[in-house]
C-alpha cells in the first residue's frame, strides 16, 4: 500500500502519479468518443451505409473485449509497464493506418487494431489494485475515473469542431498526437508495480477458472458490465437519434452527447469521497437506483408528449451518474476477490464489460431502425439498470453466506 502524495511525477522509481493513471484510463474513452460526430461524414467519404460505418464503434468495442482477455494474464506474467507501452505503441501505428485507409474495409481493419489502447485502461486499474486495499482502491479508482470522465464530456465537442473545421481526418490526427503524448508520459512515469507471477504464460491463462468459478467475481463483473452496457447502448443509438430524430449538426450533437459525462464526474466524485467509508456494495446499489430513476423519468416524459433532445440527453446524466457510482466500486470488488490475479481479473472483467457493450451497441442500432422516438434505447438501458440491481443483491447475499460459514 502507498500514499499517492509520495509519487514523484516522471520518476518511475516511485509509484505512478495519479494524473498518469487518469491519462491511461482516459485514452480508451477518447478513442471511442472523439470521432462520433464524424460518423455521418465518414460514411459519405467512404461511400458506405451508415449502419456499416457504425461498425467503427461496435468492432472497436468487440476487439477491445478480446484484447483484454490477453492483456491481464500478459501483465501478470511480464509486468504492467511493458504491456502498457506495447499497447499504446500499436495504437499509434493503427491510427496512422486509419488516416491512410483507401476504403471502408481497410479503415475498419485498422480501427479494430486501435483497440490495443485497451492495455492502457486495463492496466491503469490493475496498477491501482496492486497498490491499494479494496475500499481504498475504490476511492482511488473514483478519482481516476472522475478525471477520465472529462474525456467523454469534452471529446465529442472537440471532435465535432474538428470535423466541421478541418474534416473527419483531423479527429484521427488528434488521436495520434494523444497516443504519442501518452506513450511519452507512461515511459517516464510508470515504473513496475507487479512482480512476475513466476508462472509460464500457459499456467497464467490456466488461472482463469479460479475467477470463473467465483460467484462474487461474477456478481461484481455483471454489475459493472450492465452499468457500462447502458452507456454503450447509448453510444450505439445516440448518433441515429441525434441526426434522424432531432436533425442535429455534428457540432451540436457533440455538445449534447457529453451529457453522461456530467453525471459520471459527479458519481465518481461521490465514490472517491465515500467509498472508503461506506463500502463498495452500498454505492453500487445507489448507482443502479439512480440510473433506473433517470431512465424511468425520461420514458414517462416521452409518453406524455414532453420528449425532445433535452429530455433524452438529460436522462443520460443519470446514466452517467449511475456509471460513476457503480463501475469503480464494482471494479474494485472484482480485483479484491482474488488479489493475486488482479491483472487477470481486470482483463477478464473488462472483456465481459466491453464485449457486452459491443453487443448492446449493435442491438441499440438495430432496435432504433425506423423508430420515431427513442423508446427502444431507453427501455434497453432501463433493463440494464434493473439487472444490475439483481447482480449486486446476489453478491451481498453470497458475502453474508460466506460470513455465516466463517469463510
Short key terms for the protein model shown above:
19 helices, Growth Hormone, Chain: A, mainly alpha
Task: Describe this protein's structure.
It contains 19 helices and no strands. The chain is globular. Helix 1 crosses helix 9 (150-166), helix 7 packs across helix 18 and helix 13 runs antiparallel to helix 17 (309-337). The protein has a single domain, classed as Growth Hormone, Chain: A (Up-down Bundle). Residues 1-5 have low confidence and may be disordered. The longest helix has 31 residues, at 215-245. It has helices at residues 18-33, 39-46, 50-53, 55-78, 80-100, 104-113, 118-131, 134-148, 150-166, 169-189, 201-205, 208-212, 215-245, 250-256, 259-278, 280-303, 309-337, 342-368, 375-404. The protein is mainly alpha-helical and 407 residues long.
Task: Please write out the topology.
Blueprint: H1 18-33, H2 39-46, H3 50-53, H4 55-78, H5 80-100, H6 104-113, H7 118-131, H8 134-148, H9 150-166, H10 169-189, H11 201-205, H12 208-212, H13 215-245, H14 250-256, H15 259-278, H16 280-303, H17 309-337, H18 342-368, H19 375-404
Helix pairs in contact: 1-7, 1-8, 1-9, 1-10, 4-5, 4-6, 4-7, 4-18, 5-6, 5-7, 5-10, 7-8, 7-18, 8-15, 8-17, 9-14, 9-15, 13-17, 13-18, 13-19, 15-16, 15-17, 16-17, 16-19, 17-18, 18-19
Amino acid at each position: 500500500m502507498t500514499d499517492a502524495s509520495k509519487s514523484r511525477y516522471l520518476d518511475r522509481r516511485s509509484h505512478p502519479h495519479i494524473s498518469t493513471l487518469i491519462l491511461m484510463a482516459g485514452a480508451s474513452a477518447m478513442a471511442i468518443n472523439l470521432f462520433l460526430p464524424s460518423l455521418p461524414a465518414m460514411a459519405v467519404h467512404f461511400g458506405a451505409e451508415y449502419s456499416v460505418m457504425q461498425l467503427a464503434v461496435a468492432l472497436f468495442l468487440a476487439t477491445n473485449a478480446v484484447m483484454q482477455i490477453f492483456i491481464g494474464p500478459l501483465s501478470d506474467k511480464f509486468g504492467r509497464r511493458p504491456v502498457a507501452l506495447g499497447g499504446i505503441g500499436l495504437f499509434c501505428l493503427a491510427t496512422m493506418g486509419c488516416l491512410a485507409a483507401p476504403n471502408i474495409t481497410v479503415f475498419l481493419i485498422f480501427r479494430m487494431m486501435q483497440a490495443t489502447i485497451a492495455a492502457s485502461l486495463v492496466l491503469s486499474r490493475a496498477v491501482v489494485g496492486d497498490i491499494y486495499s479494496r475500499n481504498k482502491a475504490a476511492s482511488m479508482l473514483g478519482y481516476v475515473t472522475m478525471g477520465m470522465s472529462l474525456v467523454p464530456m469534452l471529446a465529442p465537442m472537440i471532435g465535432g469542431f474538428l470535423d466541421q473545421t478541418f474534416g473527419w481526418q483531423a479527429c484521427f490526427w488528434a488521436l495520434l498526437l494523444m497516443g504519442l503524448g501518452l506513450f511519452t508520459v507512461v515511459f517516464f512515469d510508470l515504473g513496475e508495480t507487479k512482480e512476475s507471477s513466476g508462472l509460464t504464460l500457459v499456467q497464467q491463462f490456466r488461472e482463469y477458472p479460479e475467477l470463473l468459478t467465483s460467484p462474487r467475481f461474477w456478481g461484481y463483473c455483471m454489475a459493472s458490465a450492465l452499468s457500462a452496457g447502458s452507456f454503450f447502448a447509448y453510444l450505439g443509438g445516440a448518433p441515429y437519434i441525434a441526426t434522424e430524430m432531432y436533425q442535429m449538426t455534428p457540432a451540436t450533437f457533440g455538445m449534447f452527447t457529453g451529457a453522461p459525462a456530467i453525471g459520471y464526474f459527479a458519481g465518481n466524485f461521490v465514490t472517491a469521497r465515500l467509498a472508503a467509508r461506506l463500502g463498495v456494495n452500498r454505492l453500487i446499489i445507489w448507482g443502479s437506483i439512480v440510473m433506473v430513476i433517470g431512465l424511468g423519468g425520461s420514458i414517462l416524459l416521452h409518453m406524455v408528449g414532453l420528449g425532445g433532445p433535452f429530455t433524452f440527453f438529460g436522462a443520460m446524466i443519470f446514466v452517467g451518474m449511475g456509471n460513476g457510482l457503480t463501475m469503480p466500486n464494482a471494479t474494485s470488488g472484482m480485483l479484491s476477490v482474488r488479489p493475486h490475479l488482479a491483472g487477470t481479473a481486470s482483463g477478464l472483467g473488462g472483456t465481459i464489460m466491453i464485449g457486452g457493450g459491443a453487443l448492446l451497441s449493435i442491438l441499440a442500432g438495430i432496435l432504433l431502425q425506423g423508430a420515431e422516438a427513442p423508446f427502444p434505447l431507453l427501455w434497453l438501458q432501463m433493463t440494464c439498470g434493473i439487472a444490475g440491481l439483481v447482480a449486486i443483491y446476489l453478491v451481498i447475499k453470497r458475502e453474508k453466506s460466506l460470513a455465516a460459514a466463517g469463510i
